[in-house]
DNA sequence: GATTCGTGGAT
DNA sequence: TATCCAAGAAT
């Protein structure tokens, strides 16, 4: 209880003034928690405001199209969050009469809500004593108690959840949970932990052993896949182009130009021999220009995508019906959006 | 249980 | 430049 009390006192004096801390409305807490999954407060803040403004209630969110939701989510990444958010909004409205689930176990039934998010909503909104375990909690607990169990091992996940649950203040679980996370985010940081100003620096195991920098322990390194994209940017006299919806993998249900993907970089000759190219246009009647001067990888967490944008002018206007002036209405990945911002169609 | 889902800031 | 990794979840 000492651990919780000290952090809670610290929290009440040092917490940041964040918009979602002014409410206990489960819809808003849910929204903020989804936005903040694997995302820094600084990055997610603008999106929280956008969503609250455009969808003031869960009914508004449920009534929107997935495309609208994805468009608003554009740029934030991990787009399954947006698709699941929208799906779950419809579920709550249509199956639960708009009444948001109020128990940890029920919250887990929502797509996109796992152990962390269910615990956060249940504790903050409904005072249920379920401990959150996010990246901050792993770090704080591993250091304070000197635990070197890998946080991404199945044993580590169990061990830290159990410990966090044992530490929770059942009177004020929501405040307790947020206190540990806020402390991890602003004091017990990944790098340059501010141990001099730490309210727990007289009882921290890792500090006493000078092993702060070795904790938490994480096993395995992720492998980066290299991919080579060639986007076919159709240009016509009627200022139209062609967009296609992605149907699997990354950026699911978002839009892009017709894609030729290869396992290594290709030149124009290799491009026009590709079936995707020939199904789209007749190479005898088009002019092709390589827009991309130097190919820099678009770096994702698990892949580096090397992309060439090919500008293809065709006399055939009828086949391509996406007006260029409407192109900003479609949800697109940052890779495409960056191109749209630098490319002059005229 | 390992992999795959984005993007951008910090170092 | 390379690496880490952020209020994780689904497959």
Which SSEs are present, and which pair or pack?
Blueprint: H1 2-14, H2 26-36, H3 41-54, H4 58-63, H5 66-73, H6 80-95, H7 104-107, H8 115-126, H9 135-144, H10 154-167, H11 173-186, H12 205-208, E1 225-235, E2 240-241, E3 244-245, E4 255-256, E5 259-262, H13 268-272, H14 275-280, E6 287-290, E7 298-299, E8 303-313, E9 322-323, H15 334-342
Parallel strand pairs: 1-8
Antiparallel strand pairs: 1-5, 2-9, 3-4, 6-8, 7-8
Helix pairs in contact: 1-11, 2-3, 2-8, 5-6, 8-11, 9-11
This protein binds a DNA duplex (11 and 11 nucleotides) through helix 2, helix 3, helix 6, helix 8 and helix 9.
Structure write-up:
- The protein is an alpha+beta fold and 346 residues long.
- It has 2 domains: 2-214, Hypothetical protein, domain 2 (Endonuclease III, domain 1, Orthogonal Bundle); 225-342, Nucleoside Triphosphate Pyrophosphohydrolase.
- Helices cover 42% and strands 12% of the residues.
- The protein has 15 helices and 9 strands.
- The chain has helices at residues 2-14, 26-36, 41-54, 58-63, 66-73, 80-95, 104-107, 115-126, 135-144, 154-167, 173-186, 205-208, 268-272, 275-280, 334-342, and strands at residues 225-235, 240-241, 244-245, 255-256, 259-262, 287-290, 298-299, 303-313, 322-323.
- The strands form 3 sheets. Strands 1, 5, 6, 7 and 8 form a 5-stranded mixed β-sheet that branches. A two-stranded antiparallel ribbon has the order 2-9.
- A hairpin with a 3-residue loop joins strand 7 (298-299) and strand 8 (303-313).
- Helix 2 (26-36) packs antiparallel against helix 8, helix 5 (66-73) crosses helix 6 (80-95) and helix 9 (135-144) crosses helix 11.
- The model has no long low-confidence stretch (mean pLDDT 96).
- It binds a DNA duplex (11 and 11 nucleotides) through residues 32-44, 75-81, 84, 111-117, 120, 132, 134-137, 153-154, 177-178, 181-182, 184-185, 190-192, 218, 220, 222-223, 249-252, 298-303, 333-334.
